[in-house]
């Protein structure tokens, strides 16, 4: 499967038009309903190949897009959300440097 | 060689068309095309999704998420996991300016962009609606033309009736003519017979009278006259 192809499980005759936010594989228990003891089994059922991880990121991006950016009358929320997400991400990867800018020695 | 490639390139699009039409015919069952929502998901404080607040609501009520946020921030700041160094203060001033700008200019910009969106949507819609209107008008005009054509058939029937009436009138007129002519001729014949009889009668009477008058000899006349005088004198004697 090359870059830009549809997922292997997508069938236009069955699923209709392609929805990038939808998972076309075998239906599994949603993460919000998995019991704590079953998390290991649930994780083992997941597909952990690079394509699947990229697919997961892509679906998450499209779910966010569909909900906050693509509606007809979207507001300023996606700009703030992108700003806050970028702030936290860059703070996290620069944390090693930020540690040394602490003002107090003892907390 | 070029003609063969031309043939192949012509064949392939037809195959694609057939597949696309088949898939379009079959795909309508499962899931319809995703609809574009009118408004985005609800957010609080400008960027936090409402669902995160709902997630806390059952266990901690309305103030739960705010308490959680304040507690988290306090922990991060006090343990200096979130260091408030010089960049933090410039970020803070930028955040305040952004919030003021959004609060002040937000509603006006929102109203203006809403109008633009409505304009674009109406442009697209109006083209389609106009086309539908034109087509339905054409259908109405077509129906009217059909009705007119039916009217033409009625006109034909009326003309036929008209001609039939005229023929009837002419026939009656001629029948009348025939009657009067025949009556005239018959009357003439009747008159002829009358005249003939009258003339015969008159001629016969004249002839008889003339013969009788001619057959009266002078001897007979004298005798008749004497007799009449004798009768008269007898009468005179009687009445005296």
UniProtKB/TrEMBL annotation, chain A:
GO terms for molecular function: proton-transporting ATP synthase activity, rotational mechanism. The keyword Membrane applies. It is found in: Mitochondrion membrane. It comes from the Eukaryota. Keywords: ATP synthesis, CF(0), Hydrogen ion transport, Ion transport, Membrane, Mitochondrion, Transmembrane, Transmembrane helix, Transport. GO terms for cellular component: mitochondrial membrane; proton-transporting ATP synthase complex. Coiled coil: none annotated. The chain crosses the membrane at residues 76-95. It holds the Pfam family WRW. GO terms for biological process: proton motive force-driven mitochondrial ATP synthesis. InterPro entries: F1F0-ATPsyn_F_prd. Belongs to the ATPase F chain family. This is (Mediterranean fruit fly) hypothetical protein. It comes from Ceratitis capitata. The lineage of its organism: Eukaryota, Metazoa, Ecdysozoa, Arthropoda, Hexapoda.
Automatic annotation (TrEMBL), chain B:
One of its GO terms (molecular function) is proton-transporting ATP synthase activity, rotational mechanism. GO terms for cellular component: mitochondrial inner membrane; proton-transporting ATP synthase complex. InterPro entries: ATP_synth_Bsub_B/MI25 (IPR008688), ATP_synth_F0_suB (IPR013837). The keyword Transport applies. Its main location: mitochondrion. Keywords: CF(0), Hydrogen ion transport, Ion transport, Membrane, Mitochondrion, Mitochondrion inner membrane, Transport. Belongs to the eukaryotic ATPase B chain family. This is ATP synthase subunit b. The gene is AT5F1.
